[in-house]
Each structure stands twice: as structure tokens, then as C-alpha cells.
Amino acid sequence: MKLSISFVFISLCVTFLGCAAEQGKFDSCIEFPASATLTKTELLDKIRGGWVGKAYGVSFGGPTEFEYQGRIIEGALALDPEGLEYLPGQDDMYVNMALLKAVVDHGLNASAADFAQEFAYGGFLLWHANGQGRQNILAGIPPDKSGHPLYNPHADDIDFQIECDFIGLISPGLPQATQRICDRAGHLMNYGDGVYGGYFVTAMYAAVFIDNDPHRIVRAGLNALPEDSGYHEIIRDVLKWHEEYPDDWKAVWHKIENKYNRDLCPWGVKRKFNIQARLNGAYIAIGLLYGDGELEKTVEICTRCGQDSDCNPANAGGIIGTMLGFNNLPEGIKTAMAGHMNTDFHFTPFSIESASRECARLAMENVAANGGSIFGDRIQIKVQPFRADGPAEVSFPNLQPADMFTVTDKRVSWQGQWKLFPKGDESMRRSSQPGDVMEVKFTGNVVYVQGDLRYDQGILEVLIDGKSMGTRDMYLPKKWQRADQSTAVWLTGLTPGKHTLQVCVTGKKNKKSEGIMVSLGKVVTYRGTVAGQR
Q1: What pTM, to 2 d.p., does this model score?
Q2: In the chain, how long is the greatest CA-to-CA distance?
């Protein structure tokens, strides 16, 4: 494979930290040049290749998303050309573009508040950690806290990982710069391993501008992670197992499944569903390590790993697409994507082409701001070390699921006029009768209740053992048509032991709401602590 960039060594190579020191231990030590150069044409070509690779990956894996939980996808897989028609509405793409807009408008030092403006108030739909981050920001929680596990039960979910690509694309050879942006943007919706998914992915993007060996790229991503984080542990294991099974990615998949497929997200309790950033990040690593630098092979392996099987091939596809550059992509992919290059993503001003141009401009600014230089058509990058400083954030130090109650569980009492919905699913109950109460007895010290935010929802009250724990406004403007993965209750730090939870319809509402309805879903209980818990 031919490199499209030339390297300039300055006295010594940069040694990337995180090398194993103990004899016999897996060695992640790698070296990259201290400086690298590429042309403006090559830079734009790589960025365009990255966006196309990501779009191809999300479209290829889209039909299988969460259809395969805890199992490998077997049988034939191929890109459905009709699936590309849904590309503008893929959250992997439109959230990237919304966050990119904050940097385009406010510069490389865009603040958390700048990102929040585009993220929380955009017209697009959001789910899981993203949806909770929006719910928190709209409720007045500061954007640098809206992803914190005290407020967000989805803190370790995949969300930031799937929408951080723009950061890597504007940071060639600059992993320290990516981390600074990740910290401001990623904490809108995530914390700990949820943010470190951004560290990992953006570091690999930064690396593919200066190297074309996927194995070294994954090691660079590993070294950009805090060594005491759960994310570092799983990627280190993937690399170690890859050495043991260099020709058998399925053997590595099974080892990951046996050791790591345990999700704390309320949707993953008592199920094989797993939306953790680190588990899905391991699937990205598998695709890169076994994909031989080929875009189609990498995307297919990531997809076959299952779980979030559109997001993972999207990240991996973007990384390999950047490494290859647009001009070196398979002709079939370029042909399939040709009619979609100038289509704007929902509720954003950017298409693949316009985003590529903006990212190239920002990448050159970033290079110059971090000790590099630009002479005519030549861009000289001062390559930064791939490392993470300081102790790791840990969202849920010792949290363990205790129990899960569906709305039809006989242990849950529905007092009043609660009705099942939606038809055909019946995963929630709703009531507009003041004084109606949902009650459940549980053992633990952390409890979550699913809610639905809507234009006609009112204010609920939460009680533990007869004591009011406060109210929650469930109103959401009508422009967001669906938010049924929202939170009605998230209480941490309760006294360990037996408790009675009650959620009440108060009959009160936000003055903008069209009703007083309260909609509730599953109840999930835990034992243990979350970060910042008193």
C-alpha cells in the first residue's frame, strides 16, 4: 500500500507512551515521526475519504442495527443502495455535522456552551446519552455536567463515540488537540468511558494522517486512553487476543463477549443489548485489525460483530477512508456515493462535500495552532504524543444491576387510570388523572424509571419511602416528535436496602405544555455508587 504523505524526521522519533514494561506482557509500544508533511490536496482528499468511508459504513450496517445482540451476523451482507437514501437522517452523520458547526462558527476553542447550542436545540432526534444530555441541558443543567452520571444514566453509552469523527478529521497528527475538543463536546452527553470513546476514535483518525498500518493505528488509539480506564483495558485485551488469534477474529469476538458483555445502561439490564462505548469500540478495533486496510472488509467485519452494527462500521469506515483517501477508495463505493456527496444532513448546513472543505480549513488552522506550519501547498505537522494525562474518570465505580421491572410486571402497582401504549409494543403506561400513582418496592440504592418527553406532558413527583424527592417537568416542544427513551426518575445515593418508589401525576404543567399527562416505562434498580455520589 502506498503512502500518500511524506515523513520528515526531526532528530528523534516520537515514542508513544503506554508501553508495557514488564517482561512477557503485551507490548503496545510504537513510534511515529516527530514531524510529517502532506499537501493541501492530500489533506482534502483524506478528509473527503473519511466522510465517505463513514457514510458507507453506517449505510452498510444500518439494516442490522441492534438486530444481533450477543451473536455474530452470519450469511451474506451487502450494501443496499436504497439504504443510502436514509443517509441524511442518520444520527451518526447529523450530530457530527451539528457539532462541527460549533467549531466552524466559534473556532477551535469552541466552548461547551457553543457545542450545547447546536446540540441541544437542533431540530434532529436524539437517543440514549444524547437524548439525556439534551433533556438535562433543557432542564438547566450546565453543558459541562449534562453527561455526568449524577444526571445521566447513559454516561458510558456509545453516543459521543459515533459523532466525534469531525474532531479527528480536523486534527491530523494532533491527538492532544483532539482530547481538548473531546472534553468540551463529549461531556454534553457522556462521561468516563463514554468520553474516552471519543479519545480512542479521534486518536486513530489523527494517526491515519501520518501512518497507514491499521495495527499501529489501533495501538495509537490505545495509548491515547487513560491506563486506568475500562476502555483501555478492553482495547488492550483486543490487541493481546489478536496476537494470539491473528487469523480468527471470531475467536477474539467470543473472548470479548465472555468477559465484557455486561451493560449498565437501563436498556441493557437483563438483556444481551449492549450500547456501551467500550464494547462497541472493541468491535471497531476488531474490524481495523482484521480488515487488512481494506475499506469493504473492515466495514463488513465490524458489522458482523453485531450490537450497534451501523455505528461501529461507520467509525471504522471513516478511519480507513481517511487512511486511503477518497481517490483510492473502491470504485464501487465512489459510484454508490456519487449522488449523495452534496446532500445536506438533516437540520444542518453541511453535506459531505461542504463538511470536507470546512474540515480541511480547520485542520490547517489546527496544525498551525499546534506548532506546525504551512508553506504554499505544503503542510508540516508537529506530531503530538498519543497519551492521556491524569487519572481516569469512572462513571460507575462499583454499580451493579439489581432488578428490572416492565410495565406489565405484577410487582408494579398502577393506581388510577393508567393505560398501556403504544399499540403493538405496550412498553409504557400513561395517565392524565391527577393523583394517579405508580408504585414499586425494590432493594438497592439507585433507581431509574423510563419516561416520555412530549408536548402534552406534565410534571411528575417522585417519592421514596413516602418522602418527596422532587418533581420533574416532562414537557418537550413539539418539534421533537419522539423522546420515549427519556428519564422520569434517576436517583442515586439512596440508603442501601429496601425502598418504596412512587411516581405521581401532579396535575401541574409547564405553561407551554398542552397537557398534564405522565408517561412511564421500565424501572431498573442498582446497587453501588456513581461518580460524584455523596
Answers
A1: 0.94
A2: 76
